[in-house]
Amino acid sequence: MPSLGLCYLAAVVRANGFKTAIIEASALNLSCQDVIKQISTLSPKYIALTATTLSIYHAAELAREIKDKDKNIVTIIGGPHITAVPEETMNKFPQFDIGVIGEGEETLVELLNALENNANLEEVSSLVINSENSPKITASRCRIKNLDTLPIPAWDLLTDFPQRYKPPLHRFEHLPAASIVTTRGCPHKCIFCDRSVFGNFCRPHSAEYVMKMIKHLYYEFGVREILIEDDTFLIFQKRLKKICQMLIEERLDLSWSCLGRVDAVNPQILKLMRKAGCWQIGYGIESGSPRILDFIKKGIDLEQIQNALLWTRKAGIKTKGFFMIGHPLETKETIEETIRFAKRIDLDDFDINKFTPFPGSEINKIANKYGKFDNDWEKMNLLQTVFVPFSLTKGDIEYYSRKALREFYLRPNIIFSHLRLLTKDPLRIFYNVLTILKMLFKK
Fold first, then answer.
1. Which tens digits make up the pLDDT trace of 49-70?
2. What is the architecture of the domain spanning 166-441?
């Protein structure tokens, strides 16, 4: 799916008088050199890149290529990685001229105006500025209080949107599809999450703004599937009910899915969500071991998980569970506990990743107390094993990751339920199945 952050930023800087373009390299299948060619055609003064930890090396490579072609272009880096470790990132990648820390909309506009007027950049809040000696961090900026003041994301600047963008087969009921985010921040305390960009409190768009985005996508771009990507979409129950009622009243030919916590649902709200078009909810479950759940500060218990999934299935909404393997304090016994739990509860889909102490998370600073931690940003993709608790080996984590997937998916009822995917894109599902089988059964 397209980078929603770029679309918000482009909308804001365009509204402030700057001629703006977006190059969404992944969707267009562009190599670094392809991007450089497009940049040369556009001849920009400023290039703003966004990067997670997973993509920071790719962003740095692109910035270096840009500087090699034209050293006068100002390269600006934003996103969660630079926000979590600003000085370390700028020291490692001198090809970035300026970093934007935290929410970028107000900062980027102020920064561009300062650059245009040759003003002192150190007076712009929430920047990290590369210099010959050491990076300089400016004063912090308050987060945006009213998200409704932001313009609608600039989806119109994306090439071939939305046809070019296709989520995984199990993530949509209809096409074209688009993703939205309706809240920022999270009030919970999970030790594996980085909350440095949006903070430890939650701010929502109003129900009216959310409907404005949805109707814009529906009528202007023909979107028929909405992927709501908030971590905390379900947290504001009054707003949630209002959004559902508005969707029902609008009678849009639309399906949607969302993410949520198991402690934020009840049978009544789930029935309303289903009536409003919700067909799938992905829940962050993480582990089937109460000991692990307590350690990672998840704030939920096994009974809450079971009840939420049961209610969701009874409401006619499909369920997906997100798990991690290799937590601190993890043992072979707790992993087996998790596998048994995942098979016992009402899940349609199952996703398991390697526990990864990302920069900015609480566990990142203390991971070495609980295991061997390879703090290599380039490997932090949730697929490679960078953290191994003392009670396990790297081989154990690799073995149990495959075992968990095999035991969940290679069951007749799960296989049968997934046959419906064949009607969406038979060739794509065929290649996906081959890839999965190779992964599951490799030695």
1. 999 999 999 999 999 999 999 9
2. Alpha-Beta Barrel (3.20)
